[in-house]
Amino acid sequence: MIKAVIVDDESLARRGLQLRLKQFDDIEVIAECCNGKEALQAVAEHQPQLMFLDIQMPGMDGFDVVKSMQGDNMPLVIFVTAFDQYAIEAFEVHAVDYVLKPVEEERLEQALVRARDYLQKEDAISDKKRLMDLITHITGQHPTDLNTDLKADSPAKAYPEKIAIKDRGEISFVKTQDIEWVEAAGDYMCIHANGEVHVLRSTLKQLEGQLNPTHFQRIHRSTIVNMDCVEKVCSHINSEYFLVLKGGARLKMSRSYKDKIKHFL
Questions:
Q1: Tens of pLDDT along 178-204?
Q2: Which pLDDT score, from 0 to 100, does residue 251 have?
């Protein structure tokens, strides 16, 4: 089941969408919210996989809700609104889809197909981790260790000691060893280093390729952490964990990446 939350300040709109979603057996609406504050509380409490989010709401609008959610527990977002002028901005914050009111059943089904595709990609990552565990169980070695002999004759990849960041015509350099953690925010990366946040236009995959995996590991689809900065590991619900860094940052490690880094902890 895909756990979903409906966020709309109009009760009739929430009710209508919930009725349409009942025809889909794999969608479970676990909360209805009438404003942005309730939406953030619902995400923190229920950890839904999908959110149907109105844009124009009093106080905190739909875009404010997206910007306020932490990247490590952010559900997939389908905007549901009566206004089409926000479509470009919606996809800039990486919405799964943008559905206009009144919601047509065919259009809603198309949006759900896209959401399922996103979630299945995450499941594929989990399947790969289970396969790696099986290899470890059979051989007594971690899969990365099995490749050691194959890579022994290959030259080691050189990783940059500094990351160049362009800002308003200036270029500053951040030492990779000073980077504590990185969080994706759309097409930009928020690099946390020495108590400061540097914004880099890049994808998480591109930046990950520049960081030495001996020290930097992905712990979530939107988060990379410097393992040397991890001070404490705290268990959480649903077999998830929080990593507490030396600087005080508290990052959630998703189940998909738990097995990948457990040999570092």
A1: 999 999 877 788 899 988 888 888 888
A2: 86
Q: Please identify, in words, the CATH class of the domain defined by 2-118.
A: alpha beta
Q: Which of 17-31, 71-85, 144-158 has the lowest mean pLDDT?
A: 144-158
pLDDT in tens, 8-34: 999 999 999 999 999 999 999 999 999
Residue spans per domain, the chain: 2-118, 157-264
User: For residues 41-73, b (16+ Cβ closer than 10 Å) or e, as one string?
Assistant: ebbeeebbbbbbbbbebeebbbbebbeebbbbe
Options 2.40.50.1020, 1.10.569.10, 3.90.1640.10, 2.60.40.2470; CATH of 157-264: 2.40.50.1020
Instruction: Give me the helix-helix angle, 105-139 and 11-21, nearest 10°.
Output: 60
Contact 190, 183 (CB under 8 A): yes
